[in-house]
Amino acid sequence: MSNDNQGILWEVFIQPKAGKPHKHVGSLHAYDKEMAMKAARDLYTRRQEGCGIWIIKAEDIISSQSSDAEAFFDPSDDKVYRHPTFYNIPDGVKHI
Amino acid sequence: MNTDLYTYCLRIGDNGLILSHRIAEYCSKGPHLEEDLAITNVGLDLLGQAEAFLKYAADIKGGGLTEDDLAFRRKEHEYLCVHLTEIPNIDYAYILARQFLMDVFHFYLYKKLVLTEDPIISGISSKAIKEVTYHLQRSSDWVIRLGQGTDESHLRIQKAFDDLWMYTDELFDSDEIEKNLEKKNLAVTSSSLKKDWDKKIKEIFLSAGLTAPSTPKHSMRYGKYGVHTEYLGFLLAEMQHLNLLYPDAKW
Prior knowledge:
The complex is a heterodimer of chains A (96) and B (251). By secondary structure, chain A is α+β, with helices and mostly antiparallel strands. Chain A has helices at 33-44, 69-73; strands at 8-15, 23-30, 52-57. Chain A has 2 helices and 3 strands; from the N terminus they run E-E-H-E-H. Classes of the chains: A alpha+beta (96), B mainly alpha (251).
């Protein structure tokens, strides 16, 4: 047991505007959900950064390991055909 | 010039100004990073409210007077804050207890001031009530946490309330100035806030497992009439020293 008594580590996501996705902004320490919410409000929205807050316990996030990076991500390097770049796009089509 | 209104604005403005200075003294000394920033935010809100009231007071007085003159260039007996705001930061329990007692007071004060007929006072108050609603949620939350926390935290928050309780009588002391303004629906008497204040304190103390002390008032003469605790002079010496060294400095 360490001497760290700051509570649980939480990750904070802020929604910049209604309808926009929540984006990760940082983390904080708090003992429970209510305290985490108030701390997130004070730490991450004091300069009008957003209109919504999501918080999750850091330990509940499943993250990939950097040791797996080669096996996970490198194989897609040489598979350009997975991008739909070999089609001729008709002139009238926009937003691609 | 409406002297009553001027005095009334100074009282509210000075409560915010002096309390925010006490909180500013605590900046970087909080129990942990998150709380340090959160309580400093509260201080900044209070400073903003104070600025608005002091600006209005300066406008009422006229003659080119500014809110900065009022904040930094008065003598001790010209400040009209209540004694509770002057109490030093003894420890986190005292800071929190002081804040909670003032938050409950501010909450009911601004709730009523919003409905008064002075457009500036009701305007400042409708902005302030949003801030103060959050302050009260925050401090209530902590009072309950400490009250229901460990034996040590319970003991210390109870002791802080026991020691500070005698300063709360002043919050509800009303004089002719307040009564005159209330008759014209320009302000509210402090005494009219007592019932709601008592009820809220009782509610939170019940959740926190704390006992409301019954210490009577401590003084015959109060800060809102310009008579202060021994603490205010030292606070002002620090708060005013930059202005004394560099008058009219801009940044």
